[in-house]
Amino acid sequence: MPYNFFKEKESESRDYKLEYHINKAKLLHDVLCLSNADSQNQRQLIFGVSDDLTSFPGIDKDPNRINQAKLISWLRTVKLNHLPEIEMTSRSISGYEFDIITIQNRPEKPYFLTEYYRDGNTTLQQGTVYTRDKDVNTAIDRCASDKQIEKMYKERFGLDSFLNHIRVVASELPFNFCHRGNAQNPFITQALEKLVHEEPMVHSDPELFQKASHCLNTAKTLSTASPYHPQLKAADGQYLMKDLAEYISTRYRVKGSSQS
Asked: Of 107, 59, 113, whose CA–CA distance to 81 is shortest?
């Protein structure tokens, strides 16, 4: 028996099936649950193996076996908001054939139906978000939790990265409140530069972008002055730093250590 290949137990990213689904709605449910799973790994739906890893009959003689062309063709007829990136492969191990549906981890989550899908007595409703909690699928008649769905949308719109940048900037700003702001004692602006120049979501908040850009430009100008800038004062940079910190605290409820 091909035990070595199946050392990994079921998880958020791996699901075993002893045989192919007779009911297409249940296959679609498994695909959606894995596609929306909270995991950085590729997701795999593996056929020919029992979920407790005690039986490995393979799928050589499975009458419901399909190939990649049929799978993709069928999924394209299903009304989904986005089609997951899927690849189907087969492996022959110790004389047994196993099929593997691999779903790539992409930020388009959540994937869901825009029209209901029914096969026999099983119906998947439109707009319902399915996922996995460890090795358990969201029940067909239930929906993913608010927290799970919120995390999917944060990933989709890049909000996690954006908020992380905001937190780092908020931590950096207080170090500048007492800086003189000249070539000998320059302002610390590494996080601020990344927010302004590398974070695309900053443009979703024009006021934040304006404040951060003004703050950065002033800090850079002061930090190159030797010994002092002829028109700007260190207090000008400190004021802008404090104003930006206050805006971040009010708008995003994020404070630096010395603001707490």
From this structure: 113
Specify the pTM.
Answer: 0.70
Q: Which residues of 20-29 are buried (b: 16+ CB within 10 A; e: fewer)?
A: ebeebbbbbb
> Which residue type does 1 have?
M
Q: Determine the pLDDT at residue 259.
A: 47
CA distance 13 to 19: 19
Contact status, residue 44 vs residue 87, Cβ threshold 8 Å:
no
Residue 94 pLDDT grade (very low, low, confident, very high; cuts 50, 70, 90) = confident
Which CA distances in Å does 112 have to 78, 84, 124?
Answer: 10, 10, 10
Classify 54 as helix, strand or coil.
coil
Domains, the chain, ordered by start: 3-144 (3.30.950), 159-259 (no CATH)
pLDDT digits (tens, 9 = 90+) for 171-220: 999 988 886 677 888 889 999 999 999 988 889 899 999 999 999 999 99
* CB contact set of 153 (below 8 Å; sequence gap of 6+): 110, 159
